[in-house]
């Protein structure tokens, strides 16, 4: 079984590829890569937490997680506007932010 560091490194590689796919509007590739990230995340959750890792390993994990989060933000910058357009065309023409509220709250309440 791979180590936590190896899993984080693989996740970082895939997240970088996800950001590139999002920039290229390659949604099929983005979805495929997201499935790979999910499998790695599940594998990571299945192994020990690494609480007793030496400081260099902890620093490496921190760096990898930071890079993964930066890639995630990049993906969101490209996918959220696209999702807004889809919602607009499939919904009633109103932007989604009008509907965001507490679960079960009526979209017209307020």
In short:
The protein is mostly helical and 110 residues long. The chain is 69% helix and 0% strand.
Descriptive labels:
110 residues; mainly alpha; Methane Monooxygenase Hydroxylase, Chain G, domain 1; 3 helices; 69% helix
Protein described:
With 110 residues, the chain is mostly helical. It has a single domain, classed as Methane Monooxygenase Hydroxylase, Chain G, domain 1 (Up-down Bundle), CATH 1.20.58.380. Helices cover 69% and strands 0% of the residues. The chain contains three helices and no strands. Helix 1 runs antiparallel to helix 2 and helix 1 runs parallel beside helix 3. It is elongated, with a radius of gyration of 18 Å. Residues 98-110 have low confidence and may be disordered.
What low-confidence regions span 5 or more consecutive residues with pLDDT below 50? 98-110
How many helix segments? Answer: 3
Q: Per DSSP, what share of the residues sits in E-state strands of 2 or more residues?
A: under 5%
Question: How much is the average pLDDT?
Answer: 83
What is the CATH domain class? Mainly Alpha
Largest β-sheet summary: none
CA gyration radius, whole angstroms:
18 Å
Q: How is the CATH topology named?
A: Methane Monooxygenase Hydroxylase, Chain G, domain 1
- End-to-end separation in angstroms reads 53 Å
H-E order: HHH
What is the CATH homologous superfamily assignment? Answer: Flagellar protein flit
Per the principal axes of the C-alpha atoms, what is the gross shape?
elongated
Class by helix and strand content?
mainly alpha
Overall number of strands: 0
Domain count: the total is 1
CATH architecture: Up-down Bundle
Considering DSSP H and I runs of 4 or more, what fraction of the residues is helical? 55-70%
């Amino acid at each position: 079984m791979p180590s936590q560091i190896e899993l984080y490194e693989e996740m970082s590689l895939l997240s970088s590829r996800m950001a590139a796919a999002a920039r290229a509007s390659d949604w099929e590739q983005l979805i495929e890569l997201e499935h790979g990230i999910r499998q790695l995340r599940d594998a990571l959750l299945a192994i020990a937490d690494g609480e007793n890792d030496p400081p260099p390993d902890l620093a490496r994990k921190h760096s990898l997680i930071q890079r993964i989060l930066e890639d995630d933000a990049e993906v969101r910058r490209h996918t959220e506007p696209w999702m807004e357009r889809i919602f607009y065309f499939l919904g009633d023409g109103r932007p989604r932010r009008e509907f965001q509220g507490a679960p079960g709250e009526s979209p017209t309440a307020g």
